[in-house]
Amino acid sequence: MKIEINQTTLIDQVEDSLLTYFKKNDLRRGDSIPNENNLAAELGVARSVVREALSRLKMMGLIHARPRKGMVLTEPSILGGMKRVIDPRVLSEETILDLLDFRIALEIGISSDIFRKITPKDIEQLSEIVKMGIVFENNEYALISESAFHTKLYEITGNKIISEFQEIIHPILVYVKEKFKDYLKPINIEMSKSGKIATHADLLDFIKKGDEKGYRDAIERHFEVYKIFKVNRSQELMAEKENNEKVEGI
């Protein structure tokens, strides 16, 4: 496990070596790992470096330190790291658009799971959410109504990771709706005029009828405003980038 000098930081290398060590020794959840002194000696680095690398793994939830009993491997939160970094204030617009696209693809993808697992009680709860929902003109929902409806759809899948992702992505949706409302409004108006909009009530109606194909078509139309927005905005960003490159080249 000796460390070699290269361009990455020493702590990065130690972290990678520790992960490799866990795999090579087939360590599982609940297994003990060597203490800091032993790891430092085996790696040939200072104990402080090992401590910092272990601290990173603890933050990831991969290691748990037990008082007077040493450290053991634990099951990390799959999306734990994602929770810490998804903040629209520090993400590029390209990344935000990609996350929005990913969320749409995921929600369309869970359609079959919803129809396979939904219960009468779920339908009753969705009906109540739609009934209490706040809808503005051109199918623009209040954030609390939007979140409640789609959170319930994620919950129906019974997949904890999918439900957790909904919690993580919510700040991105809030950011997009607020920052780009002037972009979204005309798209919503145009879709409303052409009768292409699918509301929460429409989605619920397909669920009640057990019409999975109709629901899948409707959920795609429900997110069409964001798809159109993403395409338009991506083209604008590309044009801005090309223009900046031309200016810099002069």
Could you outline the blueprint of secondary structure elements for this entry?
Blueprint: H1 10-24, E1 32-33, H2 36-43, H3 47-59, E2 63-66, E3 70-73, H4 80-85, H5 93-109, H6 111-117, H7 120-132, H8 143-156, H9 160-179, H10 181-193, H11 200-209, H12 212-222, H13 224-249
Antiparallel strand pairs: 1-3, 2-3
Helix pairs in contact: 1-3, 2-3, 5-9, 5-13, 7-8, 7-11, 8-9, 10-13, 11-12
Any overview of this molecule?
The structure is a single chain. The chain has 250 residues and is mainly alpha-helical. The protein has two domains: 64 residues, Arc Repressor Mutant, subunit A; 169 residues, GntR ligand-binding domain-like (Four Helix Bundle (Hemerythrin (Met), subunit A)), CATH 1.20.120. Helix content is 69%, strand content 4%. The protein has 13 helices and three strands. It starts with 9 loop residues before the first helix and ends with a helix.
